[in-house]
Amino acid sequence: MSEKANPLLISPAARDALQTWLEHQSALKDAAENTIIAYRGDVTEFLTFMTLHKGDTQGLGALAKITISDMRAWMASTRSGGAGSRSVARKLSAVKAFYRWLAEREGFEPTAVLLARSPKFTKKLPRPLAEDAARALIDCVETQARAPWVAERDVAVLTLLWGCGLRISEALALKGGDAPLPASLRILGKGGKERVVPVLPAARAAVEDYLALCPHPREAQAPLFRAIRGGGLGARAVAQVMADARMQLGLPASATPHAMRHSFATHLLDAGGDLRAIQELLGHASLSTTQAYTAVDTARLMEVYNNAHPKAGR
């Protein structure tokens, strides 16, 4: 949580209301744990600012009287504190969601908060890897590990990310009882959304190669992917493996574990995959999220055109 978010500067009533709203988001809206953490930090930061801005803790009655001027002051303070447009937009979205709920519960008009305009920003496009780069990364992590079983583990994890489009958290959530991997996996993704993902023979084989060398006993309820000392493998360790490999290969910093998932989607689209089917495979709640990959494809085509066509006006 940000240093600017100080729960001690928030009135007990506002603190209780925030906790109730967060519980509502978690129980009824199936919000992911990371989303709840972000909501708590963003709204607490907002309420802390209002206490300092007004010179007194803001009870529910005072919060109902927030003005457009107050909202502008908060957004300006957030920007001056180093937050970019994307971050400010995210924080404002959390505050608006909290206020919609609070206004309905307390019976006041939240117009001043809801009318606050989100700053414009350009959405970042996914940055997938070219097919040869993805293959090179997997080959590289196999050669850089100290122990053979660790090498096979790293290969298996990255193969699942690229071959099945899993999030790193989803791959690391697999249990020993999930192996040997079936032809398809039932994955519980963000917000408790469940999807079925086909498992390529190459991914199944990579997991089996890892398990054949893993020195730790396979236990049905223990993590499938183990760290050196036998505990569950962490996302940071996988990110470091990718960082070491991309440095050796001269790849950009965008070559992260999540980029392997982006690559899965982009390579399927390149091969003529249906956008709706890719949406289901990725577990995106909205098709608009998946459509970002069509923008990637268009951007790449335009780059080729601008670099190669004699009429491109270079």
From TrEMBL:
Membrane-spanning residues: none
PROSITE patterns registered for this protein in UniProt: CB, TYR_RECOMBINASE
Top-level taxon in the UniProt lineage: Bacteria
Alphabetized Pfam families for the sequence: Phage_int_SAM_1, Phage_integrase
Keyword Secreted: no
Keywords assigned: Cell cycle, Cell division, Chromosome partition, Cytoplasm, DNA integration, DNA recombination, DNA-binding
Signal peptide positions (record): none
Residues annotated as catalytic: R167, K190, H258, R261, H284, Y293 (o-(3'-phospho-dna)-tyrosine intermediate)
Tyr recombinase domain sequence ranges: 124-306
Keyword Secreted annotated: no
Every Core-binding (CB) domain range: 12-103
Location(s) in or outside the cell: Cytoplasm
SUPFAM superfamilies: DNA breaking-rejoining enzymes, lambda integrase-like, N-terminal domain
Quaternary structure, from the entry: Forms a cyclic heterotetrameric complex composed of two molecules of XerC and two molecules of XerD.
Function: Site-specific tyrosine recombinase, which acts by catalyzing the cutting and rejoining of the recombining DNA molecules. The XerC-XerD complex is essential to convert dimers of the bacterial chromosome into monomers to permit their segregation at cell division. It also contributes to the segregational stability of plasmids.
Family the UniProt entry places it in: Belongs to the 'phage' integrase family. XerC subfamily.
Protein name: Tyrosine recombinase XerC
Species: Sulfitobacter faviae
Primary gene name: xerC
